[in-house]
Amino acid sequence: MNQNNLHRVAVIAVFLLAAYLRLGQPGIVEFKRDEANLSLLALDMAQHGEIPLLGIGSSVGLPNAPVNVYILSIPYFLSTNPQLATQFIGLLNVFAVMMLYFFLRQYCDKWIALGVTLLFAVNPWAVMFSRKIWAQNMLPPFVIATIWTGVLGFLDGKKWAKIVHFPLLAITGQIHYGAFVIVPVTLYLLWQDRRRFSRELWLGLGFAILVTLPYIIGMQQAGLLNPDALRDAIHSTEEAEDDSLTLTTEPIEAARLLITGDEIHAFAGDRFVDFLDAVPDFYGIFGLLFLAFSIIVVYLLLSKRNPIVYVSLIWFVFPVVIYMMTWTPFFIHYLIPAIPAVYMILGLGFGQLLSHSQKMRRLLYIIGGVGGFAIVTGQIIILMMLFDFVKIHNTSNGFGTPLLYLNQAKEAVKAQGNPQVLADLGEQLIVYENEPTVWAVLLYDVDNLRFTDDMTHVFSAQPTTLLTRNCNANQVVSLREDEGCYAVESVEPLDTSAYTMIDTLPFANGVVIEGYHWTENCLNLLWKTTQTAQIDYQFSVNFMNNAGQSLFNGDAISWQSQYWQPEDQIIRTFCMPNDAEIALIDVGMYYFTVDGDIQPLDLLDSMGNPAGRYITLEVSHSQ
Question: pLDDT grade, residue 238 (50/70/90)?
């Protein structure tokens, strides 16, 4: 086999390896609230044609642009299963590996380009960031494409690339705010081309404005396109409370981790010690990569530099430096845009080093080959062992419950074939709480999906499947060790034998109190809906003694209004913090107006006239 054919085979092998690490074992991926919130918008767009003008919220207080939703809607056009969407993110990152190779191939020897591309393909952090539905995880191929077109346009004089560069920059910046770190690369390229500005540049800027219009319109509709509103939104975050500006070395350490693959055991969460005990100690070998990178950076800084070297150095250095100032909390994934730059620098530096050291060429190839082989082998092994570890161990504060198990529970629910599903998982709020948000995506195809919590139990008049975490149920889907299970049950008829049943007037919202049961300092209030609701109603619950003195106010939401359906029977529990002698309980209902005022509800007589606001219940500890 000649050199060219051998190289082609090697290139394909590297690309296939990159694909396996990012797309293999598709069930061993996380799917939590952030991924689910982005998926909900993408699903609504793909399945119902609802095109958003704003994305999900961000840590800086402003909503994200909707571009990441548009991109994620592509796999959701084909399937509502988030596993396919997660693999789509992995596929984008496979493209990033391929693009890096062809980009770098223009500036160094093909074997050097392939060698550093192999390092990128197996980088543990790059791989793990490729296996999750996060907006920033979409960035690598777009970052590479943006910088590549900038180089082709402003250094190589390609007119088409000048036109394409700015729209790509606008799209990349709208995928995630963190992509702003590549703007200095564009500024440097513009400076290099400052004597050749042409209509292509202005045409590209025009297209950039066009692709930003949906976000601009969305911000305008949200009332955020004025300085005061922007300032208020930014200062509304918890992070904005501390506005002191200091320096931190966290980004430098994070950069070291991303270069070497060190501390990838962070994904093992609280079980990281067990994971480290189970795997060979490769971190020392991985450290050689950081040493080589540091030497090459110094070599490039001391050598005669060409513009592509400056591009690569700015691409890597600026993200690290800008986050050293504590203007925002720093997280390691903020450096995702800089990861490909590491391999550009390694390829360019190693290529120059070889070209200037002909006598050392064979030795450098041997050192690079042996060292690279050891690093690549170690990183593949540690990734495979990490996949196996997080699959079976409860890695709390690390890798979440693998989608594999969530999909198994989903299939068990759908196999029941009931038109309604009640998920009693301890939380009710889609978007704001983890379980409802995740299951709103997993059961997106279920028309009637509702959520309850530990203090709310619902009995529907329709056949209903109940999803719980009750591991004593007959049908359970076990999760990882010590992580519990999901259980699939049928809703049993309500047993009211222990309840004191009462005949009361309805509230103005159609709610009827049907009975109550007092036990262990808790009131179990049985009530029924007769209509749907558009606003969230609160129960006013005033615990009193025999003299009518108020001992405790147990006000709480009745049930999220979006879930109300006629003829539902609901048990809402209200508990006292102590064992005071409760004799009377006044129960009323109210809601909050848009101004935050309390608006009580009346009880209505048979003619629809107000007939009071409270129902008084008589209870005793012996009940």
Answer: low
Give just the sign of the alpha carbon dihedral 443, 444, 449, 453: positive
pTM: 0.92
* Cα gap 341→593, rounded to integer Å: 53
Q: What is the pLDDT of residues 83-112, one digit of tens each?
A: 999 999 999 999 999 999 999 999 988 999
- Report the distance separating Cα 85 and Cα 573, nearest Å: 39
Which residues, listed in sequence order, are joined to residue 519 by a DSSP beta bridge? 522
Report residue 462: phi and psi, to 5°. -100, 155
- Assess contact for 399 and 387: CB atoms under 8 A: no
Assigned token pair, 259: 């270069």
DSSP notation for 226-247: SHHHHHHHHTTSGGGG-----B
Q: Are 593 and 599 in contact (CB under 8 A)?
A: yes
User: What residue has token string 């062992």?
Assistant: 385
Q: What confidence score (pLDDT) does residue 241 get?
A: 54
C-alpha dihedral, 214 to 137 to 322 to 230, nearest 10°: 30
Q: In this structure, what token pair is assigned to residue 317?
A: 């250095």
CB 514 within 8 A of CB 502: yes
Residue 251 CB burial class (10 angstroms; 0-12, 13-18, ≥19): buried
Among residues 133, 171, 125, 142, the alpha carbon closest in space to that of 56 is found at: 133
pLDDT digits (tens, 9 = 90+) for 8-29: 999 999 999 999 999 999 999 9
Task: Identify whether the C-beta of residue 589 lies closer than 8 Å to the C-beta of residue 539.
Answer: yes
Where is 517: in which H helix or E strand?
A: strand 512-519
Q: 486 pLDDT exceeds 80?
A: yes
pLDDT score, position 369: 82
Cross-strand bridge partners of residue 591: 599
* Dist CA 80 CA 45 (whole Å): 11
DSSP conformational letter for 456: E
**Which residues share a beta bridge with 325?**
247
Task: Measure Cα distances from 573 to 173, 516, 597 in Å.
Answer: 48, 10, 25
Mind giving me the DSSP string for 135-154?
A: GGGGHHHHHHHHHHHHHHHH
Cα angle 267, 268, 270 (rounded to 5 degrees) comes to 120
Distance CA 389, CA 272 (A): 10
Q: Which of 376, 437, 427, 392 is nearest to 36 (CA)?
A: 437
Two tokens at 388? 């196996």
Asked whether the beta carbons of 512 and 504 are under 8 A apart, the reply is: yes
Q: Tell me the three-class secondary structure of 553-620, residue by residue.
A: ECCEECCCHHHCCCCCEEEEEEECCCCCCCCEEEEEEEEECCCCCEEECCEECCCCCECCCCEEEECC
Q: How far is CA 496 from CA 7, 235, 499, 517, 526, in A?
A: 76, 51, 5, 9, 9
Q: What is the pLDDT of residue 225?
A: 77
In angstroms, the CA 300 to CA 349 distance is 6
Cα-based distances in Å from 419 to 251, 430, 448, 482, 551: 51, 20, 7, 32, 44
C-beta neighbour count of 33 within 10 angstroms: 17
DSSP state of 316: H
